[in-house]
Amino acid sequence: xxxxxxxxxxxxxxxxxxxxxxxxxxxxxxxxxxxxxxxxxxxxxxxxxxxxxxxxxxxxxxxxxxxxx
Length: 69
Hints:
Number of strands: 3
Shape: globular
Distance between the termini: 22 Å
Largest sheet: 3 strands, antiparallel
């Protein structure tokens, strides 16, 4: 399946930090480092939960793929 087939319906959604780390295929500690270093920024906060826009995560995932070859 293509990325669009799996995640296309989520284009305007937000992910929690846990969901975002799974989407990016990185551990939570790596994900937290990305946020702490401001490589990723939450789009909003709901209570104590940071929410991350799918569009931002998709762009960041592309950058990670390029950096990792």
